[in-house]
Amino acid sequence: MTSHVLLIEDEPNIAEAIRFLLSREGCRVSTLHDGIGAAEAVRAERPDLVILDLMLPGCSGLDVVEAIRAHPETGTTPVMMLTAKGQGRDREAAERAGVTLFMTKPFSNAEMLASVRSLVGK
Amino acid sequence: MARATLTGTRLRERRMALGLRQADLAAAVGVSAPYLNLIEHNRRRVSPLLLDALASHLGVDAEALEDGAEGAQIEELRAAATALPGNGAELDRVEEFAGRFPGWAALARGLARRAAGLERAVEALNDRMTHDPHLSDSLHEVLSAVASVRSTAAILAETEDIEPEWRARFLRNLHGDSERLALGAEALVAFLDGSDRAEAQVVIAPQEEVEAWLAARGWHLPELEPGQAGPAALEGEVAGLASAAARALARDWTQQMARDAARVPLAALEEGADPVRLAASLGVEVTVVLRRMALAPGSEAGLALCDASGALVLRKPAEGFGFPRFGSACPLWPLYAALGRPGSPVMADLQAAGRGGRRFRAVAHCLPRHPEGLGGVELREAAMLVMPLRGGGAQGGTAQVVGSSCRVCARAECPARREPSILTDAVMG
């Protein structure tokens, strides 16, 4: 079955690169460019994986994760967080919010793909 | 023990000030001398009646003996003790401590105040490094661009069957990201190197405060020229500096400038003058002439002063010649060659590292001093004058390529490099 990934990333070039890579991996990718309405989109689309940036316009990625976790229908959805903020306290905050996997920018494509495969069980 | 125990100390001080013997005062108020001795050493409480009698004989109000500034001091000691839980301080005896050992109590209060001040400074510095919006934005911009470049470049390099339209799109993205990266890196360098933002910093070093003040005055203080009012005329401005350390530095510096002005008249500073010859003709040290040349009205020259450790103690920037804000400067500066050869002038033509770097003529000199005489320490004061060469970077001839500090220097394969530059390895590696 084709995995569905919801990508929430405000950097269009990064989003495009990730979308290209995941599409070639056989994933169906939908994208959002800010955090507003992201939790509702997760509830509506029920993706197999959410990839999101920590620093999003309008709404922090941490807030989005907390909203995803708070809802019973999306509470167990795997969430991979991408961020240029790789300090220890940022990781801790992400863990507290319920992030499944934390990946710092810049990341390698191979590393990102391996993480996606592990999270969607491919 | 009640606060009134401090009364004993005040009683003793008052009695001794009047030249009364303890035994005589004790007899006058109807108590034994050993008992009064215990009271004076805050070992016994004094009854209200006895206090009135003692106050009457000592010519003071009883209230003045009971309460004083010690109340606030005791509260300060209590606060210091409670700020460090589990330290074992006998809080129930704090008044006795303050009364019996006023000097030690003052020291404890002073140390507590100093510790609190240092904690605030550390917090402010930490906050600035962590939360400075300019630094955070610049770093985020650079890292985001790098992430995009890395991912996109890998796709182009590793995907053999990529469609032409995707290839064209990713190439456009790479170009856009490289532009963003350049802008982000420039912003980062401007932050790290940016004396122009000094006034906006949450925490500013005392030296930076003084430099900012001098810069605001155009690096020349006419009040310090011979025949003028002198440093006293600047006291109002100096007093307005934020930190006590900056005020102390500024006072030292204005004294120094006044001494320099008395020894090297402005009229002697002709354009293009040889500072070594000028120093010889005036009978002054070369470093004095270098300072005067840099700090003359309208001078475009930069000035760096350092001590024997190489630490820059004054930085007057020259346009196009960067001085580091933090840490050590470029080891290729003639300033450091002069530091190692005290008494010998060093002259070199320099070119600022980076594209379109301007050229300068630098003259440096080091003066050794021996304030403790023979067998004492040797101090060194080095000065480097940095004069822009006419025509900027256009003229020929050789010039030593120098930076401000390794961290923000673009010079590749520098033999003197101490650490990677954020313009090359650290960002892209």
Poorly predicted sequence stretches spanning 5 or more consecutive residues of chain A: none
Topology, number of strands of chain B = 6
- Give me the Rg of chain A, rounded: 13 Å
The major beta sheet of chain B can be summarized as: 6 strands, mixed
Specify the structural class of chain A: alpha/beta
In the residues of chain A, how many domains can be counted? 1
Strand order of the largest sheet of chain A: 2-1-3-4-5
> What percentage of residues of chain A falls in helices of 4 or more residues?
40-55%
Q: Span between N and C termini of chain A?
A: 10 Å
CATH topology-level fold name of the largest domain in chain B: Beta-Lactamase
What share of the residues of chain A does DSSP label as strand, in percent? 15-25%
Global geometry of chain A? globular
As a percent range, the share of strand residues of chain B is 5-15%
